[in-house]
Sequence to fold (400 residues):
Amino acid sequence: MDFNLSAKQINLQSLARVFARENIRPRAKDLDKNPDPSQSWPYDLFEKASKLGLRTLKIPKEFGGQGIDTLTELIVLEELCVGDISFGSSLAHPWREGLILASATTNEQRELFLKPFLEDHNAMTSIGITELHSGSDNATGYDKELKAGSMTEAIYDGSEWVLNGRKIFITAGNVAQFMLVVARTNKKVSWKEGISIFIVPTNTKGYQCIRVMDKLGMRVNPNTEVVFTNCRVPKINLIGELNNGYSILSKYGASSKVKEGVKSLGAARAAYEEALNWCQNRHQGGKKLIEHQSIAHCLARMAGKIEACRSLCWRAGWSIDHDPINAIPLQTIAKIETCEMAAKVAVEALELFGGYGVLKEYPIEKIARDAITMLHTTGGQLALTSSLAEQLNFITKKNE
Ligand SMILES: Cc1cc2nc3c(=O)[nH]c(=O)nc-3n(C[C@H](O)[C@H](O)[C@H](O)COP(=O)(O)OP(=O)(O)OC[C@H]3O[C@@H](n4cnc5c(N)ncnc54)[C@H](O)[C@@H]3O)c2cc1C
Fold:
């Protein structure tokens, strides 16, 4: 395991860092303040990021992307999320969905769907898994439970697929050009054996985004509720084999959990950098805050926790490409520990700002809200801990 970064990794890291510092961070606070989250999508920032190549990083080179590995993906994502975790999270969607479009499809599908996606710098993607009754299910298993997982149904009527159902929490369902919809194509078996993935352009009749959800934090990442009513798509919009959705999600979304950790790492760094700057400039008792020993210790612990979690995330990311069996528990650990660390570090940073910490005009309260929101993604901390206990063979698999 060698974490000496290559020239390419350093270049991409620096590109993302500069883009985050110069373009994302100065806008993040105002975008967050918008009372109507449906109006917060930064089209111009997204287009600019795309023109720098930051939208198509995971697509293999032979299909027009940069084909980066998992470690590079994590390095870039951390930098973007220091700028704003919402924007970084949104931009990481076309990495995964673009990879599926390029690698799990036929030549004919690539021509139909990947080509226009690559040509349009504004083309955003989304993935619809979560439903009202099933959130953590999808991150934690329930291998034999027929009532777990997606219930949105796709039925083939002899010429087209007809989708009916409802998805919730879906990032960018309001601004994406298409959604990869996880739908049940066999209800007689568990969701893992009976789901398929469909490409549904968001201008298809029967696709309706009914709301953009108003959240505590990560307000620039638009979470949406979407309804499918007799939403018809051609036969060719089925990706891969019928009922093979779970293996596509597992293969091409292999880094999903550790990416949640790295996004939080970005938020923790933003909180730490703001707190450090504040403590180097704010005076109490006739000296800078950082010259008070307990405050210096607090900042040093924050820096240490961030460094420790980065090592954990990088190891988990490296393992995905080189040691996939050990990567499974490692990335669950990386998600749980880093999200928890970031929420704690952000609240400590808030405290270092004193009364100013809770004022909306200062940067730190937004970062704390963002970091806390990350405790609720990809199954949440409790469900993931239950999943980890299974991965470590402490308890038997759910419903087995
Ligand atoms: C910012 C954000 C972005 C998102 N983006 C998307 C997206 O793009 N696409 C998408 O499909 N979904 C998305 N989601 C949805 C997300 O994956 C779910 O919200 C998450 O999986 C939790 O599901 P839930 O909200 O239904 O909570 P529930 O599953 O109802 O969980 C409630 C609580 O119970 C705990 N719990 C559940 N099961 C167990 C168990 N077996 N053992 C112990 N504890 C358990 C959970 O950890 C949680 O604390 C997003 C969510 C957020 C907040």
